[in-house]
Amino acid sequence: MPHVVEDTHAVAVPLAVDSMHRTPGSDTVLCRVDDSSARRRAAAAALTLAIVGMLSTSARPEPSPPGAGAPPGQASVVDAKGRPGRPREASSTGELRSFDDFHRRVDSWEHLSGDWGGARPWLHEHGVIPGIRYTVEVMSKLQGGATRDAVGRVLGNLDVDLTLDTEPLFGWPGGSFFFHFENLVGRSNGVNPAVGFPFNVVTNLNAPDPFVRMMSYYYRQVWLEDRLGFKLGKQDANVDFLGTDTTGLYLNLGVSPPGNIPMPTWPFPELGLSLFGRPLAALELSAGVYGGDLVGDSFSAASLFSGDVFAIFQIALEPTLYGRGGEYQIGAWLATTDNPALDGSRIFDSNYGAYFLFDQELLADTVKGRSLRAWLQFTWSPPDRNVNSWWVGGGVVWQEPVRALHESALGLGVYYARASSDLPNRSGETVIELFYKAGVTTWLALQPDLQYFVNPAGDGRGALVLGLRTIIDF
Asked: Is pLDDT at 63 greater than 50 in this prediction?
């Protein structure tokens, strides 16, 4: 989980809620059964049983207890997509591992700061899991766009998080408290005006201004081997809705989530409650309600209790097809904040939309640890109140193309954002993104990223953007 997230598009029209968020219903098809045909009823019943059987038998393995599968004494990430600015909730294993010290090469350490003389694995064993990560990103508009000259920006982002695992701390299984602090230094939004204020913002580490903020704080509880749970507190909705590990690898903000969804996500998470249930091993039902104002205050809870909310519901399927795992998400959302009509004729008292995301493994080499995944995503929102009415994108990601590197990935994506029909002289914007993420060590990753914008914001000049992100885990 990528799923980030915010600049304001410069458009000479009233903007909808999505513009406040990042740049910045749905017909139901009924399947009728002919009551006069018993044969058709029997076929429908057989098909339903076949689908249920596939979901219950071809799913991923049963969920492991928190922390299972991680190196002894090391925190096990259970809630993140690995992107800067996103929570990395973890749970302890209850075991110690060998200390990082000067008898081992630094590039073999789990963290750049080592194991703190044995204190870090001791803390993990007792349910206290700290995390420190620093991200440096350089983004440059090389040619084209709204300006003739090349424009570049450098920013840094410090993430400090703390997970308290209630089982080793208090003997309370399945619970965890999570706290996430951030400090963003530098201004990333200088590149977006140079490109032409694109619908698909150049980077998911984009914010209007530098900040120091308590980004997230919540309590998470799971029961029945992770089949039922909830999260309560200030949280990033994109961690749990509309996003996979695959889409979370891309740097362009338009991927996770697209700008026509005013989702409470980085850098404006909100207080909320999210519920999760897994009636079948390959089927998860999720729902969440969050404050809808997207103000970014560290301890703000006003919008959730004043009636302005963002609500979302999602159905996620994780079947195995021909031995290949997939993640399919279908959902709908509702925001109750006011939205000016793009033609200035009225004020809407709500906004809404729907989406789907298909992420499927195509090839896998279990011996070499390599895999090839493809994804397709579509989002829709009403064109009378949203600058970007619909978005479609897809791509492929090759995991571990170079075995000598730690968790490397090569990806290509193509996205198209359609301007609202209520915006005159605007059409659509296409982005082509190519990246390579190289895990040099377990604590250092480098990710060069190349993006080409065709018709930025639906009426701009093509632009080429080159970036490099460096992530250091302390």
From this structure: no
Domain that holds residue 254: 17-25+129-473
- Number of structural domains in the chain: 1
- 82: which 2 tokens? 């690995």
Q: Give the residue from 472, 474, 406 showing the smallest Cα distance to 439.
A: 406
Residue 76 domain flag:
no
Tell me the CATH number at 247: 2.40.160.180
Looking at the domain assignment, is residue 106 inside a domain? Answer: no
- Find the mean pLDDT for residues 98-117: 79
86 within some domain: no
Q: Is the pLDDT of residue 373 over 80?
A: yes
Q: Tell me how far apart the terminal alpha carbons of the chain are, to the nearest angstrom.
A: 20
DSSP three-state, residue 220: strand
Q: Which two tokens stand for residue 191?
A: 């590149």
| Residues 198/203/204/205 CA torsion (nearest 10 deg) | -130
Q: Which residue, among 248, 243, 242, 298, has the nearest Cα to 270 in the 3D structure?
A: 298
pLDDT in tens, 211-250: 999 999 999 999 999 999 999 999 999 999 999 999 999 9
pLDDT computed for residue 301 by the predictor: 53
Q: Cβ neighbours of residue 188 under 8 Å, at least 6 residues apart? A: 137, 139, 153, 155, 202, 203, 205, 206, 207
Beta bridge partners of 37: none
Query: CA 140 to CA 450: how far, in whole Å?
Result: 10
Beta bridge partners of 91: 76
Question: 426 exposed, middle or buried (CB, 10 Å; 0-12, 13-18, 19+)?
Answer: buried
Q: Which residues, 6 or more positions from 105, have their beta carbon under 8 angstroms from its beta carbon?
A: none
Instruction: Report the residue count for the chain.
Output: 474
**Amino acid residing at 108:** S
Tokens coding 111: 């963290």
3-state secondary structure of 304: helix
How deeply is 301 buried, as exposed, middle or buried, from its count of CB atoms within 10 A (0-12, 13-18, 19+)?
middle
**Vertex 25: Cα angle to 22 and 30 (nearest 5):** 145
Residue 19's φ and ψ, nearest 5 degrees, are -70, -30
Residue 357 belongs to some domain of the structure: yes
Cβ-proximal residues to 20 (8 Å cutoff; 6+ apart), any chain: 8, 262, 294, 337
Distances (CA, A) of 440 to 14, 116, 166, 209, 222: 46, 22, 34, 31, 34
Contact 206, 197 (CB under 8 A): no
Q: To which H or E segment does residue 35 belong?
A: none
